[in-house]
Amino acid sequence: MQEHIFKQYDAELEAVRSKVLEMGSLVEQQIQDALDALVGANPKLAKSVIKKDHQVNALEVQVDEDCSHIIARRQPTAGDLRMVLMMIKTITDLERIGDEAAKIARFAVKATEGDRLLTPRFVEIKAMANTAREMLHMSLDAFARSDATKMLEIARMDEEVDEQYQAAIRQLITFMLEDPRTISISLEVLFIAKAVERIGDHAKNLSEYVVYMVKGKDVRHISMEEKELEAMQP
Amino acid sequence: MNNATTPIKAESRNLNFFYNGGMHALKNVNMPLYENKITALIGPSGCGKSTFLRCFNRMHDLYPGNKYQGEIVMHPDNTNILEHGVDPIEVRMRISMVFQKPNPFPKSIYENVAYGLRVRGESNKRMLDDKVEEALKGAAIWNEVKDRLQDLAFNLSGGQQQRLCIARALATDPEIMLFDEPTSALDPIATANIEELMSELKEKLTILVVTHNMQQAARVSDYTAYMYLGELMEYADTNTIFTRPSRKETEDYITGKFG
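Structure tokens for the assembled complex are given below, as produced in the milestone run.
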């Protein structure tokens, strides 16, 4: 990308961008650790996830502040403006993903401390957790590379996650009907499944912001068919 | 802001302009001015934006050897104002201009505003009084000067002088007003007053403004044209130009990457 005449402006934009990417990789790690803690019944790891959530929050506050300074002092336009706007939105979604990771970690702590191992049930949501994580990774990568072409694939993966979530609900209902003693644990798994499903939604949002940043097109709240058409546009 | 429903007040068609000496300053410029809208011209120094603006007022006629090609057509009467038979004085009655530096005449406030009307042959005192008051009100300066209309215009502040010049331009009931960097000599408050005034004026007439201040273009205009080396590079509604311009050249200029 060509540089601004005012070099300091480039440095400021780049600094915020790096912070957003830093926040992204921190959040990715948080999900990974939360899920590992859940599967491996590792309360120590789960507690460290809960503890680290404030780092995610602190980055959100920092990026917000940096973006407001850039708006006030540089009056960004066109591509710069779109990048600043998308970063402000991106960090909101990243912060929520961080919250979901902390939520999963809290379930992990509860489950292991209550000596109720969730592992046998976790198999139902393992596939969707992997997909959601992959979606987040792809979205962050698309942001880092200013690549608008990943949006469609990520939207399809989100549909997959949604279907897996529905399937998990059906399965859990079956368990609960068969044996009412599993109700409490099934509900916990359900909440975790919901958290994973939300992570997929946020990751999808991120990929849509990237399209706005790169192409100036708003692809939120449009149908899959419209997304397919949009993906064919240069 | 729908192009389909907004009438065009004037448009340039394949407009070329050559300065005395052969410098090709405007190259095939085709651009509409929508009625009751503000169109801003932006671009680096020497890109032809002021040259373009001045064509609308036949300003270039004042120097020999300058040459126009193409048309500037005014609607609804379809007059090509560049045609030889068209009197530049008539054009300037319909299309008036405000300059970068306030340039009041060395006369009283009253006489500055009445000047255009007197040139036109108006001598009825009552009529002149009414017109002067109306123009000064239209330029949002009446309250500040109504008690000292016979004072010398030079005694006003810079921002007041510029509004006086706008009143002078308004007095002949123009259909289009041209602003050539109208606020570059003014402080932020006076600038805000002029910008506010422009958005009031567009209710009555059509405005074309040249500005070096991109934020000003973004603030006041409905449409923005980016010119470079005598060519119209991109023209679109202002929101589009400032959020997603279609040409890289425009993007580089408005984001400050112009090298």
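The first helix of chain B runs from residue 49 to 55. Chain B has ten helices and ten strands. Further analysis is deferred to the final report.
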